[in-house]
């Protein structure tokens, strides 16, 4: 059982950030503290990191997309589409499906009780409408809480989960949309107190996702389709870990995805995909501090103003805004809908996350049963929480719509 100190509120929140790989700048220090002057250890300038809570919402759970460089906004629909763009359910070629995914976390450190579990499924009423639901659970393991003098003050199992339901509908032959509602719960140290004597509580929030998908056949020598997806995710209320706090923002995100599917013949199918993501979260500016309460202005913005302002509020202007964009590239090959191989690459700017790694994956399918595996190969000195970790997904499909029902 690991030990942690009972720290002030903001330090307690950092428990959740052990899983963050997409929004934290690495090897940056503030000199002097509170000055807003962020530099690397070699003295070169460094952009301040974007900090959110409940980052487990941004962890890609399934083996298919994670094997393709975390690409999933515009690829073909399956039971895990809800994590990327629920609008894909309206174009899925199955009556429904269910998937269970398991992601070990920090396995390289020898930890076995930190993991992400993801259960999702969908059902199509007809050729136009679909409903879906998912449960995401993140366990941070067992902890012993101690005070600043290392006296044991309690034990706990910090954990977080998300419940989500979605409705997807085809608006035309080529265009579909979806709306997702979410309930988010985060218990990092409920029942404990900070060193300032403030009670820590379990945090709750509500959020929505909005997704769109445009899919059209292309006039090429072989049968092919182009899909373009747009997803705005985790737009919701602030989340509070103490009753005295100003609240923290969810990892709201804007994602744009492209997928090109080529059906060479009845046996061979190939997909290329690209996802572009940008957090809709205010960029920190320690110099903008309210004289009334000493709280940075960016922490007091409303959800909507913070999201809209996230395109133009970086300290270094447009140059820094571009650094906040992350990219995913992926490819998938299927043979006879029985066997697939996948590969991809994920990239974040070195000053805005520095997650850079190759992904590999395999897929097997027999009748209604499918199994997916994925693996990360790091390409930078930054260690990833999933380095040398095999994650997997199990899928079950429920029939296929007949041609005369489409």
CATH class: Mainly Beta
Radius of gyration, whole Å:
22 Å
Kindly give the count of domains: 1
What's the N-to-C terminus distance? 55 Å
Q: Could you spell the SSE succession in H and E letters?
A: EHEEHEEEEEEEEEEEHHEEEEE
Uncertain residue ranges: 1-26, 401-406
Q: Could you walk me through the main structural features you see in this protein, from its secondary elements to its overall organization?
A:
A hairpin with a 5-residue loop joins strand 7 (143-146) and strand 8. The protein is 6% helix and 44% strand. The protein has 4 helices and 19 strands. With 406 residues, the chain is mainly beta. The chain has a 14-stranded antiparallel β-barrel with strand order 4-5-6-9-10-11-12-13-14-15-16-17-18-19. Strands 1-7-8 form a 3-stranded mixed sheet, with no helix packed on it. The protein has one domain: monomeric porin ompg (Porin), CATH 2.40.160. The radius of gyration is 22 Å and the shape is globular.
List the helices and strands and how they pair.
Layout: E1 2-5, H1 9-13, E2 28-30, E3 38-40, H2 63-67, E4 96-104, E5 114-124, E6 129-140, E7 143-146, E8 152-156, E9 159-170, E10 175-187, E11 203-218, E12 223-236, E13 253-263, E14 268-279, H3 303-309, H4 318-323, E15 325-335, E16 339-347, E17 356-366, E18 369-378, E19 390-397
Parallel strand pairs: 1-7
Antiparallel strand pairs: 2-3, 4-5, 4-19, 5-6, 6-9, 7-8, 9-10, 10-11, 11-12, 12-13, 13-14, 14-15, 15-16, 16-17, 17-18, 18-19
Summarize this entry quickly.
The protein is mainly beta and 406 residues long. Helices cover 6% and strands 44% of the residues.
